[in-house]
Amino acid sequence: MTNYILKTENLCKKFKNQLAVNNISLSVKENSVYGLLGPNGAGKSTTLKMITGILRATSGEIMYNGHPWNRNDLLNIGALIEAPPLYENLTARENLKVRTTLFGLPDSRIDELLEIVDLTNTGKKHSGQFSMGMKQRLGIAIALVNHPKLLILDEPTNGLDPMGIQDLRKLIRSFKDRGITVILSSHYLSEVEQIADHIGIISNGILGYEEKINPGQDLEKLFMKIVSENRKVG
């Protein structure tokens, strides 16, 4: 029997007269990396914001770990959506100390997180002086503070240089070994292809495709086909 950590059923989000997310039904397998692909403005971020409680769904249902989603589930969900929530006048360690204090966690958790995201040697350098890639990794560390089972990353490689992308790719792939399921959104096909086990392709607010990634699959051709079809629907 397949275990799904997250499922959505006919999820919709309407802003005034605009239907931004149109009956999306996602199925995310436990202990996997799920890539949510789509062009800019497709509805990816809106979908992830509903899953993380930032936005309220207009209609539809979100199931987490076999039960209807409720706000208590956020204790098991970590997220990095838009810019990393950093105090730029604080070091990496101090940023994490703020969060571990809120959750009543020991300082040993800070050491664990710094090691996971490879920021152990940043010392007294303020996070405002970090490179974009380092800021992203610190943002992920903050999202991991409370030992989440599900990690949601919205366009995590945006603005990164090739080295930063490579580091982040390696980090994301390592989470499965830690028992963490990852949902990441992107419009970079090659990035998702190298990281994800399963993909969903969303365009014009519609989920047009959801399946396991197959070796040798022409993802670009598939992506363009789905996007084109959903534009016609719109």
Automatic annotation (TrEMBL):
- Supply the InterPro entries for this chain: AAA+_ATPase (IPR003593), ABC_Gallidermin_ATP-bd (IPR022501), ABC_transporter-like_ATP-bd (IPR003439), P-loop_NTPase (IPR027417)
Q: Which residues form the ABC transporter domain?
A: 6-229
**Keyword ATP-binding among record annotations:** yes
Q: Which Pfam families match?
A: ABC_tran (PF00005)
Keywords on record: ATP-binding, Nucleotide-binding, Transport
Per its record, what are the GO molecular function terms? ATP binding; ATP hydrolysis activity
The reply on keyword Transport is: yes
- Cite the Gene3D superfamilies for this sequence: P-loop containing nucleotide triphosphate hydrolases
Top-level lineage group: Bacteria
Family classification: Belongs to the ABC transporter superfamily.
PANTHER family linked to this entry: ABC TRANSPORTER, ATP-BINDING PROTEIN
- What's this protein's name? ABC-2 type transport system ATP-binding protein
